[in-house]
What does this fold into?
Amino acid sequence: MNSVNLISVIIVTYHSEKIIYECINSLLKYNDVGDKLEIIVIDNSPIDIYKRMSKKILNDYEGKVKSFKSPGNIGYGRANNLGAEISNGEILLFLNPDAIFVMPIFTKIYACFVNDKEVSTAGIQLICENKIEQISYIFIKGYLSPLFGILVKILNKLNYKFSNMVTSGSCFFVRKEIFSKVGGFSEKIFLYQEESYLAQKIKNLSNNLKLVFLRDLKIIHREKTEKMSDILLKEHYKSTLFYYNYFGYRIWITKLIYYIFFNLKKCILLLKNNNYELKYLKKEMKIFNSIFKNV
It folds into this structure.
């Protein structure tokens, strides 16, 4: 029987060969809990990429990193659930492969969970490679979420987090016992909305459970600057629709608020004469309508 680890890091990859090794190297460099840290890589990539990557992981890290092939490109949530099933830690860290550790954080994170049994999830400050702070927490998704973009940015700038805000899924710690109790991530969500889904499930379990943010701990997240592709936009709104349906929101209200958001944004872009953003918004609205058309 395997001994229990303190923290299990689960990294889901998909065509991530160029960035995964820097992530793992930084993890090992700043590991401050020794052999009580478990690192699990779940690869959604095609088999040829997995074989090449797992061979390098086996050779370079001498058993310090476990690598597993998923049944296919099964999505972010389902792959993380697979990693959680394999894991042996008290605390799970769901980590994006484009994250880079810049300081030891595990001892403090573990102490946070041990010292307060009501802590269910924890997140830390995300920063860019130039050290500029990123958005590290958002409101749990609700009716007004489309209109809260500016407020979220302001609150992150002020380092102020409300209790109904959840930390970014890019670096997301959760107590394994709680994760199992709520059934993990929804496997009907392929991509996006995972942290809101999990946070809402935890809140439904008990209002006493806390979603905490440790602002003094930092990690680099290589935030993408390019716009979502059509495929990703479709996945985003498919997940959004599933989320609202699952938690019993009235979809006609949701659609109305999104239309208000889209039209407010359109007015602002027209005033700015920003034709590039207007063209992208038009495409986004078309995709939104295609996903929400029959509800």
